[in-house]
C-alpha cells in the first residue's frame, strides 16, 4: 500500500470531533496588529468616551483593558472611569470584515466545510482525523497558520459536540487549545458553573442556583422532573448536555461533506476482476467530479454488501488530500484486499469524505 496511507479502521468506530475557534479580543487585536505601538496597552474599541460623558458602549477591548474590569457591551463612560488612560478607538468594521473573510477562507481551505457563527467564530468537523491526538495536532497547526498568515491569535476547543467544543475554547483564552475527549468530558463538565453552558443566560443561571444547582455536575445529578418544572421542554436537552450525552455536529452548511457511488451487480459476484473493475469505474467518475468542483478528498472509504445484506465499511485517511486516481486506487485496492472474505458480493460502494475546498489564500495543502 502507498506510504501516504495511514490508520485503517472500521467506520463504525468513528468518533465525532468538533473544533470551535474564536479569535481573541478580535477588533482590538486587529487594531493592535495594524499599530504595534498599542501592543501591551489597554485598548478599548467602541464609541467616543467624550471624557466620561459619551453614551455609546464598548464593542470589545484588549486583555490588558479587561484587567481593569472593562468588557463588551459596558457603557463607554463606565469604561472611561475604570481606565481613563486606556486607548479608545472607534470601530473600523470594513477592516474587521476583511480580516474575518480571510480567516474563514483559511479555515475552509483546511476543513472543507465550516460553520461560521459570527465574525470571529467558526466550527470545523475534524472527525476524519479519527483520534483526539491527531486532531489536537491539526488544531495547533490551524492556530499556527492563522498566526503566520493573519498575525492574530485565537482560542480553540476540541470536543465530541459543538456545544462542548465551544465551552472548551472558552476555557483557556487567549491563545488557548483545550482538548476535551469523550474520556475527559464528564470530569470537564462536572465542576463548571451552570452559566458556562451556552444558552444559559444570567436569568436561567439564577433559577438553577436558587434551586441549589451551582455546577453542571449538579444538573447532571438532578432528576428530570425538577428540571422540567423549571425549564419545561428545554429540560431534556439541558439534562443531556449536563450528562455529557450531546453529540450535535455542525449545523447547515452550503458545502458537501462527501461524495459517493454505488454499484449493485446483476448477479452477486465472486469475481475479483469484476468487482475491481466496478471499483475502478466508480473511482474514475468520482475523481472527475472532484476535478470539476476543485475539491480534494482526505478520506477514502469502501462499502461491501454481501448476499443477505450483511454490509461492511472501511476507510482510510490519507496524509494529504488528493484527487489523483493512482493514489486513490491504491487505497481502495488495499481496503478491498483486507476486507473481502471471498463471499459473493451484492453491492459495492466508494465514498470520498473529508472534502477539502481549497481557496486562493491557502498556500500549500501540505501545511495540513
Ligand atoms: P467575541 O468573540 O465575543 O469577543 P472578542 O473576540 O473581542 O474577545 P474574546 O477573546 O473573549 O473572544 O466577539 C467578537 C467581536 O464581536 C468583538 O471583537 C467585537 C464584537 N462584539 C461587539 O461589537 N459587541 C459585543 O457585545 C460583543 C460581545 C462582541
Ligand atoms: Mg472572540
Automatic annotation (TrEMBL):
Keyword check for DNA repair: yes
Catalyzed chemical reaction(s): DNA(n) + a 2'-deoxyribonucleoside 5'-triphosphate = DNA(n+1) + diphosphate
Cofactor note (record): Binds 2 magnesium ions per subunit.
GO biological-process terms attached to the record: DNA repair; DNA-templated DNA replication; error-prone translesion synthesis
UniProt xrefs under SUPFAM superfamilies: DNA/RNA polymerases, Lesion bypass DNA polymerase (Y-family), little finger domain
Cofactor(s) named in the record: Mg(2+)
Subcellular location: Cytoplasm
EC number: 2.7.7.7
Major site of localization recorded for this protein: cytoplasm
CDD domains: PolY_Pol_IV_kappa
Domain UmuC residues, every copy: 18-201
Catalytic residue positions: 121
Function text: Poorly processive, error-prone DNA polymerase involved in untargeted mutagenesis. Copies undamaged DNA at stalled replication forks, which arise in vivo from mismatched or misaligned primer ends. These misaligned primers can be extended by PolIV. Exhibits no 3'-5' exonuclease (proofreading) activity. May be involved in translesional synthesis.
Family from the record: Belongs to the DNA polymerase type-Y family.
UniProt-recorded name of the protein: DNA polymerase IV
Source species of the chain: Methanospirillum hungatei JF-1 (strain ATCC 27890 / DSM 864 / NBRC 100397 / JF-1)
Lineage: Archaea, Methanobacteriati, Methanobacteriota, Stenosarchaea group, Methanomicrobia
Gene: dbh
Amino acid at each position: 500500500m502507498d506510504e501516504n496511507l495511514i490508520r485503517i479502521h472500521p467506520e463504525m468506530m468513528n468518533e465525532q470531533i468538533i473544533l470551535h475557534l474564536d479569535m481573541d479580543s478580535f477588533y482590538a487585536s486587529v487594531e493592535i496588529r495594524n499599530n504595534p505601538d498599542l501592543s501591551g496597552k489597554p485598548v478599548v474599541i467602541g464609541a467616543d468616551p467624550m471624557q466620561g460623558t459619551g453614551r455609546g458602549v464598548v464593542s470589545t477591548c484588549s486583555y490588558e483593558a479587561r484587567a481593569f474590569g472593562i468588557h463588551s457591551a459596558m457603557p463607554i463612560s463606565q469604561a472611561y472611569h475604570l481606565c481613563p488612560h486606556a486607548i479608545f478607538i472607534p470601530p473600523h468594521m470594513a477592516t474587521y470584515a476583511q480580516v474575518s473573510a480571510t480567516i474563514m477562507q483559511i479555515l475552509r481551505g483546511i476543513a472543507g466545510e465550516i460553520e461560521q457563527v459570527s465574525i470571529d467564530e467558526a466550527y470545523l468537523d475534524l472527525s476524519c482525523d479519527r483520534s483526539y491526538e491527531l486532531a489536537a495536532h491539526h488544531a495547533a497547526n490551524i492556530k499556527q497558520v492563522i498566526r503566520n498568515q493573519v498575525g492574530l491569535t485565537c482560542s480553540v476547543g476540541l470536543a465530541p459536540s459543538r456545544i462542548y467544543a465551544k465551552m472548551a475554547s472558552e476555557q483557556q483564552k487567549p491563545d488557548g487549545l483545550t482538548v476535551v475527549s469523550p474520556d475527559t468530558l464528564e470530569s470537564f463538565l462536572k465542576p463548571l458553573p451552570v452559566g458556562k453552558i451556552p444558552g444559559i443566560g444570567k436569568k436561567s443561571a439564577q433559577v438553577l442556583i436558587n434551586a441549589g444547582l451551582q455546577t453542571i455536575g449538579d444538573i447532571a445529578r438532578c432528576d428530570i422532573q425538577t428540571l422540567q418544572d423549571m425549564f419545561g421542554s428545554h429540560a431534556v436537552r439541558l439534562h443531556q448536555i449536563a450528562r455529557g450525552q450531546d453529540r450535535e455536529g455542525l449545523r447547515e452548511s452550503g458545502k458537501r461533506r462527501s461524495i459517493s457511488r454505488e454499484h449493485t451487480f446483476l448477479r452477486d459476484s465472486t469475481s475479483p476482476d469484476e468487482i475491481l473493475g466496478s471499483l475502478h469505474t466508480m473511482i474514475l467518475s468520482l475523481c472527475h467530479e472532484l476535478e470539476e468542483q476543485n475539491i480534494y478528498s482526505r478520506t477514502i472509504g469502501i462499502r461491501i454488501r454481501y448476499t443477505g445484506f450483511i454490509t461492511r465499511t472501511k476507510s482510510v485517511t490519507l496524509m494529504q488530500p488528493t484527487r489523483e486516481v493512482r493514489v486513490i486506487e491504491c487505497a481502495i485496492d488495499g481496503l478491498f484486499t483486507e476486507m473481502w472474505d471471498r463471499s459473493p458480493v451484492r453491492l459495492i460502494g466508494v465514498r470520498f469524505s473529508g472534502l477539502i475546498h481549497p481557496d486562493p489564500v491557502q498556500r500549500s495543502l501540505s501545511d495540513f
